[in-house]
Amino acid sequence: SGQRIPLPDYLPTHLGFSAPRDIRNHLMPLLCNTAQIGDCIDMQNVFHGFAFDNICSVTFGVDPLCLRPSLSLTRAFDDATHISFDRFFYTLPHLWKLECFFNVGSEKRLHEVIMVVDEFVMGIIRSRSEKEEGHVREDLLSRFMAAVMANPELVIVGCDGEGTLADTTDVLKDTKEEEEEEIFLFSFEELKSMHYLYVALSESMRLCLPIPLDTKITASDDVLPDGNVVRKGCFVSYGIYSIGRMESIWGNDCLEFKPKRWLKNGEFVGDNPYRYPVFQ
């Protein structure tokens, strides 16, 4: 059996260091500069770039500075994801393979963005391969490479988690009541006590979730609750976006942004993962 890298102990510690640093050095200067010149800014793009920077910092130990609009790394990742996903919706399943073979259409763009991503990742891997005497890096890539050298049969266990924030301005006042320090001074333990922050994020992801559609592959023959039979190896897709707006699940106000629906006696209460499959 393979070994496992203890990611749960590592991630909170490293994120607790990198996130405040990125807020202080990159996010706040960007917002302050935008306010000073009286310009407008797309906060969804800002949060997307900020989250991407944090993930790269934790995973690779580098900051790609994707808050800078001139950089195309996040766009390359997004385009690669979207084009790969669109392959499932071709009327003729093998059409995308022809486009790939002749390097035309969306497959040409996919080839271009994969080169951008590969160049970024391989450049980091090459730099890690060069031993740095007296210096031990703490990012996931360095840990993984060191563990692989010690045991080639390593099994790494991790999870994907990405949140999308959008249109939560109505709850800023309530969230601010929980603040006692500047935002970049919050620790993970302090964040755990902010129940209204939890409910605001949960309600945001119910209506504006990061992944609106998910697909599973059946491991064995099964029967759905409505009686439909699915055979082993079948693709089963479900619309998480629609589930978050179903009146039968969330009531008559299912289309309204109401964070307090997640509160019970002033504390955050999570919902059934089958009713709220955002993290499935």
Automatic annotation (TrEMBL):
GO terms for molecular function: heme binding; iron ion binding; monooxygenase activity; oxidoreductase activity, acting on paired donors, with incorporation or reduction of molecular oxygen. Keywords: Iron, Metal-binding, Oxidoreductase. The keyword Metal-binding applies. The keyword Oxidoreductase applies. InterPro entries: Cyt_P450, Cyt_P450_sf. Gene3D superfamilies: Cytochrome P450. Transmembrane segments: none annotated. Belongs to the cytochrome P450 family. This is Uncharacterized protein. The lineage of its organism: Eukaryota, Viridiplantae, Streptophyta, Embryophyta, Tracheophyta.
